Amino acid sequence: MSEDVTAKIQAKADSLTADRKRRGKTIPEGLASADDISQYRQLASHTGLHSAGVPGLLALDLQLSDTSKVVTGGADKNAVVFNKETEQVIAVLKGHTKKVTSVIYHPSEELVFSASPDASIRVWGVQQAQCGQIIRTHEGPVTGLSLHATGDYLLSSSTDGFWAFSDIQTGKVLMRVAAGEGGNSAATCAQFHPDGLIFGTGTADSLIKIWDLKERQNVANFPGHSGPISAIAFSENGFYLATAADDAVVKLWDLRRLSNFKTITLDNNYEVKSLRFDHSGTYLAVAGTDVRVYLCKKWTELKVLNDHTAQATGVAFGSNASFLASTSMDRSLKFFGFDR
Question: DSSP characters for 162-178?
């Protein structure tokens, strides 16, 4: 990684930390209350976004600056951009040769990123529905994708046992690092910390690893799960990490103390496929056997949504938690909200 890139990453982290200190612990104006969340109900369901011949939506993301813009990844090998307000498909992004298992909507630009077991990562321009870059850094299925806070670099993980850091403009791979030593070193997911100086990867052998990006070093490990790690999520304030595996629990970790301070035990055989904090870090959504929302700090369950008829695969909050979006193997993209 060049000195220019290192300086850019550090400058972004410094400015985000300063912003966070300035905001302090103030709750954003207009944030949905816990009572509002407890009244979430299905507002809309869309089943026609992806091919019915190969059913299943596998991934979901919303654009941070305009959360009416949605991208989904499908078993039909396509990513689809959809507008919640107009209920129109904006773009169908075709090019992957296998299912699309990870999608990201750039927070402020009309760019979408997708990854697949076809071992490739694609960068798409939404307006033209064209693929601008194909990043081929992995030799196995790409299992995780995360956009750096600068909006210029992608973190990816793979069953090939490596994580990689790539430039979205050039498609150039800046770093490729072995995610583990020996054993089953397959990386199952990857997520940047909101400041972008550290990130987490999950492994097939039940471990969460925390990495220093600039040093390329594994700086902490969180054991305690059983089964492959299925999802990880950092809270926006940077204090918490939520993790899940094939063991029907969600664990919460304090990143300052490097300790597991809370374990949420779910029903027997509950499968967690996705974890997502809202942008304020007030709520945590869990998607899998059903969709549910927890209140952070107290970690109390606010709502369970059983509207999907098959496993939920992705979940994301709208602006100020005014709505929740979810995808499922039942072919549907659903929106939940409350009466204002």
Answer: EEEEEETTT--EEEEEE
Is this structure's pTM higher than 0.85? Answer: yes
Residue type at 2? S
269, two tokens: 């055989």
Q: pLDDT (tens digit, 9 = 90+) per residue, 175-188?
A: 999 887 655 578 99
Q: Cα(146)–Cα(71) distance, rounded to whole angstroms?
A: 14
Q: Can you list the positions of beta strands (E) in 7-87? A: 41-46, 57-63, 66-74, 78-83
Tokens of 171: 């498609």
Token reading at 141: 């299925």
| Contact call for residues 162 and 178 (beta carbons, < 8 A) | yes
Assess whether pLDDT exceeds 60 at residue 115. yes
Task: Identify the pLDDT of residue 180.
Answer: 74
How is residue 304 written in tokens? 């369970």
Which candidate, 219, 312, 231, places its Cα nearest to that of 264?
231
Which pLDDT score is estimated for 304?
98
In angstroms, rounded to a whole number, what is the distance separating the alpha carbons of residues 94 and 92? 6
The rounded distance, in Å, linking the Cα atoms of 62 and 39 is: 22
pLDDT tens, residue by residue, 29-88: 999 999 999 999 999 999 999 998 888 999 999 999 999 999 999 999 999 999 999 999
Mean pLDDT of the chain: 95
β 162-167/173-178 pair status: antiparallel
In a 3-state reduction of DSSP, which class is residue 37?
A: helix
Q: How many CB atoms lie within 10 A of CB 182?
A: 6
